[in-house]
Design a protein that fits this description.
Blueprint: H1 5-9, H2 20-26, E1 29-37, E2 46-51, E3 54-59, E4 71-75, E5 78-82
Antiparallel strand pairs: 1-2, 1-4, 2-3, 4-5
């Protein structure tokens, strides 16, 4: 079964055992890329993503060819796909 935000918020299953900060990272969020930082010490881009709740970074480890303005889905601080 798919894990939903409500499931995580209720701290069901294994989510009852992990800290709040990890529970928040497990929630899938959609946002818009507002900036891209290329750090020479890492082999992937670091995206600045704007969500409804604010702005945060997301790593491009698994999805690295996005541009500013594109809508993306983020899970565990990593961009995982483009959102239509």
């Amino acid at each position: 079964f798919p894990v939903t935000k409500a499931f995580i918020d209720r701290r069901e299953g294994d989510y009852s055992k992990i800290p709040d900060v990890l529970c928040e990272a497990c929630k899938v969020k959609d946002g818009v890329i507002v900036g891209i930082d290329n750090n020479p010490r890492v082999s992937f881009p670091i995206y600045r993503v704007r969500y409804e709740t604010g702005e945060d970074i997301a790593f491009g480890k698994y999805a690295r060819y996005f541009r500013v303005g594109e809508r993306v889905r983020v899970h565990n601080k990593c961009v995982v796909r483009r959102v239509a």
